[in-house]
From TrEMBL:
Annotated signal peptide: none
Organism listed in the record: Natrinema thermotolerans
Annotated protein name in UniProt: Trehalose-6-phosphate synthase
Residue ranges with Basic and acidic residues bias: 17-27
Phylogenetic placement of the source organism: Archaea, Methanobacteriati, Methanobacteriota, Stenosarchaea group, Halobacteria
Region (Disordered): 1-86, 532-552
Amino acid sequence: MRVPERLSSTAVRNRQCRADGRGRTDDESATGGPSCPGSLIVVSNRQPYRHEYDDAGPPTETDGGAHSSATAQTRSITVDEPTGGLTAGLDPVVKRTDGTWIAWGDGEADFDVTDERNCVAVPPGEEDYTLRRLDLSEEAVDSYYYGFSNRVLWPLCHGFPDLIEDRSNDFEWYRTVNERFADAVADHATADAVIWLQDYHLALAPRMIRESVPAGATVAHFWHIPWPSPPTFRQCPAGGHVLEGLLGNDLLGFHVEQYADRFLECVDRFLPTATVDHERRTVRYDGGRTRVVATPMGVDAAAYDRDARSIDPDRLADLLEEYDIAPDTTLGLGLDRLDYTKGIPERLAAIERFFERNPGWRGEFTFLQKATPSRTDIETYQRHGDLVRSEVTRINRRFETDDWRPIAYTEDYLSTDDICTLYRRADAMVVSPLVDGMNLVAQEYVAASVDGDDTLVLSDRTGAHERLGSHALTIDPIDTDGFAAQLEAALSMPAHERRRRMNTLRQRVFAGDLESWMATQFDWFRRLRDERGRTDAGSDSDSDSREPTPPV
């Protein structure tokens, strides 16, 4: 049912989990970095560490756990750690706060290393925080993750309503899995807990959590993807439930102001009993109040800078040889999930137009496109992957010579070290999504551009463009001619201009890095608690509309 115009309402060890899910006392907590005003519980679909069986390794016995078995005791277990994106960004934060992370356990050996509460200490060997895993059935995953999350909410929020697939039972499973996440949170939450949900997989959980945790707990949510306009959101199946669920939060964050304002517009239009204050960005609904904020996320810039400075020249040579790229070629780089929102076919069309217009660059410039297969169980993604691969083949056949191809394409796994090696080597990075909530790749590239003479070509439809657009080369990803012209400008730009632009970009990325973003989130959490205290004392919690000052 569509939304009507108005709606009612790799060694493995365990540690002992305390009753509140935190593995160490406050006196033992890590220091340094932003501090959370309470016990932090991060809730996300994806887990930060995954345990897998390594049949090639020597037999070993797991370290107990309620789910361990005779089979597990004879098989070696390895741990996959986060290499990018949201989980990699939040992992160091949860380490510092000695918190709890609740996520879907999708690794083959995940539940052979957990205790009777499905908890395991991570990272292995360090044991900085507790990971609580949810064991989901194949049917649940198909309907909750591949169904409502990625067949409805993902295309809807990215402006592709024609790609929505409203399958029967998907939403009911989405609700059921959100209930399971909420139940897990209730097991760990205390009165001082800060419960911080991540992204679109958990839109219903905030209201469920609010009804099941102590009143003093703070419930917050960061929505990492775009938010659609009201005419687009109207096409969301169960859209009223999505809005009501998100209004269970005390704080709801987006990357950019446009998405925050769109959310408020949707609430205003589709929930008639909600009171929306657009100036203060607050919503009063069903006895609660939600503050909506825009706080652009950064990356661990210092880590990318450090890794880029320590690259192995031999590894760079190996990568170039592996992808048949001449050592002295001018190199362009694209790094994306194989998703229809990332604009890869449009990028390939611009590269083709560039070589049509600039035959002198043939043999001198190679574009390396790294694409990571994603959600391949969904037919739309399968077709998109086929399209990208066929376009790469067609363009290469059109322009290639015996010793040169215009596009080097790979779907290989690349380590963080490999990625930083390519970031530093690339003369131009192309980030051209059709729409993107933020885009951390653009910021990673800038942080890794330690030589300062590279160029960022950036879509004006990314959240990152608000921070970086003035000194990147801006493109409209569907304007093939304009896109090609900006590629030419990037490759022909004088060295002094490249350095001037990159110097400013680096200043902005470092000033707005991950730690700065986290400090802003924690400042908001503190302010919410202060406002709650003033309300309890009888004062008006809406009287001060000033936002916390972002740390420098």
